[in-house]
Design goal:
single chain, 95 residues, alpha+beta, YaeB-like fold, 5-stranded mixed sheet, globular
């Protein structure tokens, strides 16, 4: 799948270096797979959830929330936000 844009991952990892490994692993997994549905994605990411039209991933031991819009038919993932668990709970997500 094509991930748009990796810059958000890198920017977040600069501010939160403890999340770098988890974000890098997520990125590699997404690039290496061409998911055709949420059910297929859930086999690799069992804690992913759908909220509205967005998919929420728990990264780095549930410390980071990655919010993405996934277009399975076009094999594209648009990263909307990468937030700490606290930021996500405070409503800073972009839905």
């Amino acid at each position: 799948m094509h991930v748009i844009t990796r810059k958000r991952l890198n920017d977040f990892a600069e501010k939160h270096p403890e999340a770098r490994s988890g974000l890098s692993q997520w990125y590699r997994c997404m690039k290496a797979n061409n998911f055709t549905s949420f059910n297929e994605l859930r086999e690799l990411f069992p804690h992913a959830d759908i909220v509205g039209k967005l998919t929420i991933f728990n990264i780095a031991g549930n410390k980071v929330r990655l919010i993405a819009a996934i277009h399975y038919n076009r094999r594209k993932i648009y990263i909307r936000a990468v937030l700490t668990h606290e930021e996500y709970d405070k409503g800073k997500r972009k839905e």
